[in-house]
Amino acid sequence: MMETADEVAPAVRSILEAAENRESGTDGPITVSSRSFSAALEDAENAGRVPVIAEVKPTSPTSDGHREDDPATLASAMVAGGAAAISVLTEPTHFGGSPEALSRVRDAVDVPVLRKDFIVRESQLDVVEADLILLIVRFVDDLEGLLAAARDRGFQVLVEVHDRAELETALEAGASIVGVNNRDLAKLVVDLETFEGVAPHVPDDVTLIAESGISTPDDVCRMRAAGADALLVGSAIMDHAGDTDGDISENTRRLTTTEERT
Questions:
Q1: CB count, 10 Å around CB of 64?
Q2: Which residues are registered as beta bridge partners of 55?
Q3: For 217-236, how does the pLDDT look when each residue is reduced to its tens digit (9 = 90+)?
Q4: Contact present, 190 and 212 (Cβ < 8 Å)
Q5: What burial letters (b/e) apply to 94-110, b meaning 16+ CB within 10 Å?
Q6: In the beta sheet, which residues pair with residue 85?
Q7: Domain segments of the chain: what residues?
Q8: Annotated catalytic sites, by residue?
């Protein structure tokens, strides 16, 4: 289901081209003993926190500047602020990420860690151990096969969609964790109504994640009211923080404790 060149923004097209050309894992299939994502969400709920997947993102095509902070230190500060899980960018060219950063983060925290990358073929699963990996429906030719291959290795899989048609593809392939990305990949604009339009069609037994554009406590409440079991938040935590770990922790806490204050 690879997008044609005129269906995505130039920045996204460049990311996909890099993903197609990137080397895959070289040591054969890896085996992962993953930390339970569902248990992490339940723990957050039981503690009165909004389940947030906080993202370690040095930079992106839609962000200004580049953070040089130690990723393990950032992740630890996010967990201290209440993050239920951590997302780590491993795409090097456009997001400044690396598999090594993910490994360091996973060693530093005790919550599930998501590998956020553009995986387009099975061999690219065999790069680094993580608890969850991301598969984007729009960019995968054989979703069912890649989903099965990831699960065979022990990964939990977050399947990302942008509309109802992609949701149907994800569900038919057997996705049990679905993320709805509020960012339009053609124009790179964010609209929270994207999640609100897709969420009612997600079965109750599927874990539903709201992604992108969640910046304020009001956004958190809005996505939760629309049915989000958890939220994936990057820029609102990373971009608006100063130079201290306390800033990262406080930005995370501001979003994870929203429902306690309402």
A1: 8
A2: 87
A3: 999 999 999 999 999 998 88
A4: yes
A5: bbbbbbebbbbbbebbe
A6: 53
A7: 8-21+31-260
A8: 55, 57, 116, 160, 181, 211-212
